[in-house]
Design brief:
Helices cover about 50% and strands about 5% of the residues. It is mostly helical. A 3-stranded antiparallel beta sheet has the order 2-1-3. Helix 1 crosses helix 2.
């Protein structure tokens, strides 16, 4: 199992900056969420241990938020090589699929997508979308929801 910051660093280095792509804090958080969800579905195990909370702008890993909170809505620069860890091939393949399927979208689209899906909505309960919330999106709810998506249910 990796740290969420390790996976964040992978996404930050996977961005094709030469083509004009960038990674904002909002988009990074959504990619972490989808990486965790799909890893749970594919391997049956979490990708990282840290919790994901149902914040007003969608799923957030607080530890990663705290690390990059100074970047606000600006692009996050790629990490130094010494900050990156090697990701095994099975997990790297999942990360590449997440990047291919979700990384093509703007951050706001991904935010709206997570808001339309059960794991975030269940974790928020009756809390209005614009109010602060630190409720945890459970790994079980992610695995259940995205397993059904994979099966086409």
């Amino acid at each position: 199992m990796y740290k969420a910051t390790d996976i964040a660093n992978w996404f930050l280095t996977a961005v094709d900056r030469e083509s004009g792509d960038s990674m904002t804090h909002l988009k990074l958080q959504k990619l972490l969420y989808y990486a965790q969800a799909w890893t749970l579905v594919i391997t049956g195990e979490p990708l990282f241990e840290e919790e994901i909370q149902a914040w007003m702008h969608g799923p957030v890993v607080p530890e990663v938020y705290n690390k990059y909170s100074g970047s606000s809505f600006e692009e996050i620069k790629a990490p130094n090589h010494d900050e990156c860890v090697d990701i095994d091939s099975e997990h790297e393949e999942i990360l590449e699929q997440v990047m291919d399927n979700y990384g093509i979208f703007e951050a706001k689209y991904l935010e709206n997508l997570t808001h339309s899906e059960d794991p975030w909505r269940i974790a928020r309960g009756n809390i209005p979308k614009e109010e602060k919330c630190t409720n945890v999106i459970t790994k079980e709810s992610m695995k259940e929801f995205y397993s059904k998506q994979r099966e086409g249910v």
